[in-house]
Amino acid sequence: MACGGSPLHLWLKDFMVRSILHIDMDAFFVSVEEVRDPSLKGKPVIVGGDPDGGRGVVAAASYEARKYGIHSAQPITRAKRLCPHAIFLRGTQGLYSKFSARIFDILDRYSPLVEPMSLDEGYVDLTGCERLHGPTIETAVRIHNEIKTKVGINASIGMATNKLMAKIASGMAKPNGLLRILPGHEAAFLAPLPIGRIPGIGPKSVEEFKRMGIRTVRDLAALPLELLEEVHGEWGHRLYEKARGISRSPVMKRDDTRSISRETTLDKDSNDAAFVESTLSWLVEKAASQLREEGIRARCISLKLRDSNFKTVTRSHTLTEATCEDHVIFDTVAGLFRKLFTRGTRVRLVGVALTSLTSGVPPQMELFENLDAKQRQKLYQGIDRIRDKYGFRSILRGSSVID
Ligand SMILES: [Mg+2]
Fold this sequence. Notes:
By secondary structure, the protein is an alpha+beta fold. It starts with 6 loop residues before the first helix and ends in a 13-residue tail after the last helix. The protein is globular, with a radius of gyration of 24 Å. Helix 5 (about 95-110) packs antiparallel against helix 7. It folds into three domains: about 1-180, 2-Layer Sandwich (Alpha-Beta Plaits), CATH 3.30.70; about 190-240, Orthogonal Bundle (DNA polymerase, domain 1), CATH 1.10.150; about 260-400, 2-Layer Sandwich (Dna Ligase, domain 1). It is about 40% helix and about 20% strand. The protein binds magnesium ion (MG).
C-alpha cells in the first residue's frame, strides 16, 4: 500500500490534522436481503426474531418499516403490533458476513488503516493519503459509489478529524448521505446537538442530565472538568473532552495476527490445580494491564498448557464482546483450564494469549447505572497507576499470591 507505513510517516502523522472516515451501512441486514430479493425494495421489511414466537428483537428494519416507529433492538412482538403487514425475515446465516467481507475489501484498497467495528461499520484513516487518492471528500464519494455499484447497498459516511466526530457525522448523514465536519469546527458543530448524539450517552443518562437542566452539548460543555470528574471519575474526564469534540483514539488496523501473551515455566512441574490457576491469574493480570495501557480490548482468549512430557496444548474461546477486564479474561482462561486439566496432568508451562484486538468504543456505559462496571474500571485504572509507580508485584489479586 502506498500510503502510511514508514516510521517517519507514522511520526509525522502525530503532527498532522487527521482525516478519518466512519462508514456505516444503512439498515444493513435488510439491504442485503433486498439485494438477494429485489421485490422487497420499498416495502416495510424487518429482520429479527420470530414475530409470533414472543421472543427476540428487531435486528434491522427498512426505512419504510421505521415510519411505523420500528427500530433496532425493539422486541419483535412490538414491531409486529406496530406494523402487522410488514415482511418479517429471520435472517440468512453466512450471507451478511460475505457481504461484509466484500465491503471491507473495498475499504482496504483506500487505506492500510481500516478498523472494522462490526459487520457493517468501520473507520478508515485517510491521513496522508491525499497525494494518492485525491481530496478526502472525493475519496469518500468514490467509496460510497463503489459500495453501491459493487455490493448494491447504501452507506452513510462521516468525515472528520477524529473517530468521535466521524461517527457522529455518519449518524447525521443517514440515510445514504455524506457529511464532513471541517477541522477546527468540532466544538461549534456539537454545541447545539442534543447530548444523546454523543456515543456512550444512552437514553437513561439523557433523562438524568435533563433533570439537571442539561440538554444540549453546549450545556454539557459548560460544566467544569472538576465537577464532571468528581461525579463520574475517569468517564467524567472523557465527557469533558467529548463535549468539545476531542478524541485521540487511533484507527487501529485490523490485525488478526497481533496478540498480547504472557507465559511462564513453573519452578517445578505441578499437578496442583489451584496453584496453576493462581499462576494463570497472575499472567492474566499482566496481559490485561497491557490491554488497558494501550487502550485496546481482546475478544479471543487462549490458554497454553505444556505438560512434563513437553506435550503442548492450546485452547481458545471467543467472547461475544471484547474486554480488557481481568475477571472476564480470568474466568474464560480458568474455564478452558478446568476442561483440560486432569489429575494425572503435571503442568510444566502455562500461558495466556489475547487476540482479535480492537480499540473499539466500549459497550455503551450508562452513567447512573452499571456502577459496578464503572467502579471496576476505576479500580483497574487505579491499580494500573499504582503498578506503574511501584512495580507490577505490588498489587496482585488474592488468588495470585503464590509465594
Ligand atoms: Mg449500520
